[in-house]
Amino acid sequence: MTTTVQPPAMPEPIEAPLTDERIVPALIDGQSVYLPCPAWCSIDHVRDNQKFLEDVWHSGPFSDLEVPRRDNTPGLMAYARIGMDPFSRDERMRRPFIFVEDGNSSEGSYMDAEHAETFADNLVAFAEKIRSMGRALKAVTA
User: Fold this and answer.
1) Are residues 34 and 94 both part of a single domain?
2) Is residue 46 located within the same domain as residue 65?
3) Which structural domain, as residue segments, surrounds residue 125?
4) Residue 16 lies in a domain
5) Which of 19, 25, 63, 106 falls 20 to 30 Å from 6 in CA-CA distance?
6) Is 63 part of any domain?
7) What is the pLDDT along the chain (142 residues), one digit of tens a residue?
8) 120 shares a domain with 99
9) 72: number of CA atoms within 13 Å, CB side?
10) Whether residues 68 and 96 fall in one domain
11) 3-state SS record for the chain
């Protein structure tokens, strides 16, 4: 019997410009308010129910990098998302950014567009090295 691990479905690309926004309902300490929300944000701000307005943040859909394992159960290696913290004291956090982390720690990497390009190039190079290792492994184990 052969078991094939299917790669996870890739999230839909973000279609709307990052500047498009809408007015959405939100709960702040149980009180209904309406606030601007980027069109790419996938957070339900009513369900999120923050204690203070300055705790509201925005997140796009997550893109997961899963690693197949010998027992055919994929493991999360990292995820990435577009985010924005509109009430942050850090001006850079009030603009959209890409956030990448391993899912196991509170530490992650915040990236601007230039960083994302460099990171993507690094991932492509890494993927080619993994592919090369796989070919070498096949030659030895065939």
Assistant:
1) yes
2) yes
3) 113-142
4) no
5) 106
6) yes
7) 333 333 444 445 565 567 789 999 999 999 999 999 999 999 999 999 999 999 999 999 999 999 998 888 888 999 999 999 999 999 999 999 999 998 787 789 999 999 999 999 999 999 999 999 999 999 898 7
8) no
9) 6
10) yes
11) CCCCCCCCCCCCCCCCCCCCEEEEEEEECCEEEEEEEECCCCCCHHHHCECCHHHCCEECCCEEEEECCCCCCCEEEEEEEEEECCCCCCHHHHCCEEEEECCCCCCCEEECHHHHHHHHHHHHHHHHHHHHHHHHHHHHHC
Q: Are residues 30 and 85 in the same domain?
A: yes
Q: Does any domain span residue 10?
A: no
Do 111 and 120 form a contact (C-beta atoms < 8 A)? no
Question: Rounded CA gap, 79 and 71, in Å?
Answer: 22
Supply the pLDDT for residue 87: 93
User: For 15-50, what is each residue's pLDDT tens digit?
Assistant: 556 778 999 999 999 999 999 999 999 999 999 999
Domain assignment present for 124: yes
Residue recorded with tokens 């690693």: 67
Q: Give the list of residues 6+ apart from residue 132 with CB closer than 8 angstroms, or none.
A: none
When divided into structural domains, the chain yields a total of: 2
pLDDT for the residue 132: 95
